[in-house]
Amino acid sequence: MKLQTVSIFVDDQQRALDFYTSRLGFTVAADIPLGEHRWLTVVDPEQPNGTQISLEPKGHPAVIPFTDALVADGIPFCVLGVDDVQAEYERLVGLGETFTQPPTDMGPVIIAVLDDTCGNLLQLAQFTG
Question: Where are the beta strands (DSSP E) in 2-120?
């Protein structure tokens, strides 16, 4: 058994697709029209058969209060591993992206928290230990 797909709830699927591909470097795994929305997933280009991220519309009534509460409390929805948090921070800030927490050394991990422009905070993590 393996983790196949995880969902990140987004305000706008197209904006999310643009952000996750052009800013974070993921590639499209699936983009299937489903009426008003799409089955839209992205994947790490170095692991095309790896776990996919579903850019899921915030259609369910419980999703908006849940994601709004996480953002209000500064809690990232998920963690993305990177080789160098400081370099990713500088690259993304240079592209105009917003961080709610700059790179912070937490012992065995260096973290930073990024706004994904679609209603979520993402934690970037570099494991050092």
Answer: 5-10, 27-34, 37-43, 52-57, 78-81, 99-105, 109-115
DSSP 78-110: EEEE-S-HHHHHHHHHHTT--EEEEEEE-SSEE
pLDDT tens column, 64-123: 999 999 999 999 999 999 999 999 999 999 999 999 999 999 999 999 999 999 999 999
Per the structure block, which two tokens stand in for 105? 């050394």
One-letter identity of residue 8: I
Whole-angstrom distance, CA of residue 89 vs CA of residue 81:
13
Contact in structure between 102 and 89 (CB atoms under 8 Å): yes
CA 119 to mean position of chain CA atoms: 10
Q: Are 85 and 103 within 8 A, CB to CB?
A: yes
pTM: 0.94
